Amino acid sequence: MDIMLREELSKIYSAVPEGDCSGCGRCCHESVGASFAEAEVIYQDIKAMPAEKRKQIIDRIMDYYFDVYQIRRKCPFLSPENRCEIYASRPLNCRIYGHWSRQEYENNLDRLKCSNDKISQVLVEKYGYKVKQDYLDFSIGFCNDFRGRLLSSDERNELYDSLIVLDSKMFVRKGLRLAYEDKGIVEHIVDRLLSKEKIFEIKMRGELSPGMMNRLKNIAVLRIGAV
Ligand code: SF4
Ligand code: SF4
What we know:
Elements (H helix, E strand, L loop, with lengths): L1 H12 L5 E2 L15 H12 L3 H17 L24 H4 L6 H26 L5 H5 L9 E2 L4 H22 L10 H9 L2 H10 L4 H16 L2
Antiparallel strand pairs: 1-2
Helix pairs in contact: 1-2, 1-7, 3-8, 3-10
Bound molecules: iron/sulfur cluster (2 copies).
One iron/sulfur cluster binds next to loops.
């Protein structure tokens, strides 16, 4: 299953043109969205990492998950040396980052900003949870240093459609029910390791003590490391 998913993802990714840039890592200053198939492959790659590295990544994922609306953190897969720790399996969103025209990229940022504002309103109304303004104001700007062919919106949509088709096939093969939501890699991984509803509640209450955080990190590390 894993090998087949990897092959099918590679076919989709092969349609993204080559690009060239300085590798400054500025576009890796937040976690990105991923499909279920992409998250599955990334999960397996974390699982296969040496124990120490796996622990570092899970710690960073957990910090990111619990602090996301309060503290701005870089993508948890970005190493201290500015390298992507899951480069071979990085999701489509990372691969096409430089291939947007400036206008389309900035329109998309506006759309994301509106969506974040709406989410923050819902969190206040539903949980009394206040998202920090820093989070709402932050965005990764257009990159002027990337060199590569631009993708049209039709080409981008075709790539995303292919991911949706692959997710559907994966769900059918595994006999799972389809429940699409817009999820980042961090949420995909945390949802697989811990009880989604419970930890969301803890996050919304903002009552996570350092002791409880350590316990949750240990549970997550043990679960992903379990054979
Ligand atoms: S695409 Fe741009 S922002 Fe991202 S690493 Fe390359 S130069 Fe830096
Ligand atoms: S997954 Fe890798 S390429 Fe994508 S944002 Fe994170 S560090 Fe950057």
